[in-house]
Amino acid sequence: MITTTITTPSAEVISNHVFAEVLLNNASNQKSLHARVHFAPGDVICNFNAGITQSYPTYLTVQTGTDRHITLMPEFLQYINHSCSPNVFFDTTSMQLICLQPLQPGDELTFFYPSTEWDMAQPFVCNCGSKDCLQLINGASHLSVETLSKYRLTDFIKSQVKQKLSL
Ligand SMILES: [Zn+2]
């Protein structure tokens, strides 16, 4: 008799942060941040600060200026993954995490990496499942102005786009 093992993806809560929790997907070993409460578009989910500020990007940093990349405080914000249909936005001017789409408890928080990253250290192929998935995510500098116009972008990225257009 042939038996097959059916593995069902399961996730465990790693840490709790009042308005959100970090989940670990045991199948993929990926961590993600999920809402614990409701948020509406425009809501400030939380404030954030720079942990370390450095001159080069890593997979953990968010870009705040030319040669300026920060690690996030609170640290669990690093588990907000990319989506091409993001539901949150890192405003690096006001240093606020802003809700873009209605969030219910349990929903995964996602942001659009090119909304903060001009040229990414580690480009990747996206599997976000959005109908508008851009597939290769490598930073705003690689995207058309038309594509970028569909997204909320940081003041830094907007200034970079402006500069590129005037060249
Ligand atoms: Zn995608």
Q: How would you describe this protein?
A:
The protein has a three-stranded antiparallel sheet, with no helix packed on it. The model has no long low-confidence stretch (mean pLDDT 93). It is built from two helices and 13 strands, in the order E-E-E-E-E-E-E-E-E-E-E-E-E-H-H. The chain has a domain at 38-103 and 112-159: SET domain (Beta-clip-like, Beta Complex). Helix content is 10%, strand content 32%. The chain is globular. It is mainly beta. Bound molecules: zinc ion. Zinc ion binds at residues 84, 126, 128, 130, 133-134.
Kindly state the mean pLDDT as a whole number? 93
Q: At the third CATH level, what is the topology name of the domain at 38-103 and 112-159?
A: Beta-clip-like
Task: List the uncertain runs.
Answer: none
Strand order of the largest sheet: 1-2-3
Indicate the CATH class of the domain at 38-103 and 112-159.
Answer: Mainly Beta
What are the distinct ligands in this entry? zinc ion
What order do the helices and strands follow? EEEEEEEEEEEEEHH
Indicate the proportion of strand residues.
Answer: 25-35%
Taken from the alpha-carbon principal axes, the silhouette is globular
- The CATH architecture classification of the domain at 38-103 and 112-159 is Beta Complex
Distance between the termini: 69 Å
User: Helices and strands: which structural class?
Assistant: mainly beta
Biggest sheet details: 3 strands, antiparallel
CATH superfamily of the domain at 38-103 and 112-159: SET domain
Radius of gyration of CA atoms, rounded to a whole number: 17 Å
Q: Percentage of helical residues? A: under 10%
The total count of helices amounts to 2
